Hints:
Layout: H1 3-26, H2 34-47, H3 58-79, H4 95-108, H5 115-129, H6 132-141, E1 143-144, H7 146-172, H8 179-191, H9 193-201, E2 209-210
Amino acid sequence: MNIFRLSGDLLHLASIFILIARLQQTKSCVGISLKTQYLYLLVFITRYLDLFLGFVSVYNTLMKVFFLASSGYIVYLMYSPLKASYDKSLDSFRVEYIIAAAAVFALAFPHKYSVVEVLWSFSIYLESVAIMPQLFQMTRTGEADNITSHYVFALGGYRALYILNWFYRYYTEDNYVDYISWIAGIVQTALYGDFFYIYFTRVLKGKSFKLPV
Length: 213
């Protein structure tokens, strides 16, 4: 554990709390991609199978349980109580393609060839592109409310901090190498490039999030 990893984890937690608070307070899921939430739930299910294989630490266990439970809860909120406010026509990104691509990469380039490790690799590849349906929906509408913008920023910021965590670990730990996480993390952070620019130039200045015409 280091300051970059801890800060990344806290920002990841913040993104989930922001989204849940937004859904509960507005009683609406307008502007939120259900497909992205499905993908994140799939990411956590396939990554945290090691919960049943051994104990690492209380912190590790609590974080994994929280991410699984909160992702399931968000999907439940959007699929059931708030379903009437969900606009399927705007959430039209073809997620089957990125799921298939993540599966192919996991089979071709796993961390190790075992069921758990292939699924772990799949979750890493899939997480790198899981935000794409949300970004695609924001591109289609051309705007987003500020709370949704804060949620997406927190997700992107968490991954950016993890890149700093990997740099720190590379220079402070012996034989630390994790090419799968490194490459996927860089790809994931790069996807936020345009969003970060608009967030810093508009939202942080008190303006609404709108894509340039």
